[in-house]
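ok trying this again, last paste got cut off
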Amino acid sequence: MVTAAVIAPLPDAARSGLPGVKVLEQEAGGATLVTLPRYQEFTRHAEGLARLGAEFEEIAGNRGPVLVSMLAPTGWSPRVPSRDILFTQPILTKPGSTRIALTVQVGELSSFLRGLDGQPVSVEHIYDY
């Protein structure tokens, strides 16, 4: 029910503010191997870590693209290359809303999430492999 991630740096506030973060190993250079809850709780923890200044280096041993789905107003576009957007679909039960599925490199996930602050969007899910 957990997934491992390498984060650098691990902010002190993460230990108290995100109780699902468990430190397994901390290197002198600042990289920290942690476990995080899987599924929907992973999304909440990833967003919290990003806001605290943590940067993901690996998630479940992966450094490549991670799938992120977001809910946004129709017409809103994320600041990513169009090739990274996998699909958009209107939310039929919420007129004016769209689901956007895109990929973000693991090493860019935190800065991408911080870049959404103040935007009219919500992260629906970050897929933890």
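PB: full thing came through this time. The chain has a mean pLDDT of 94.
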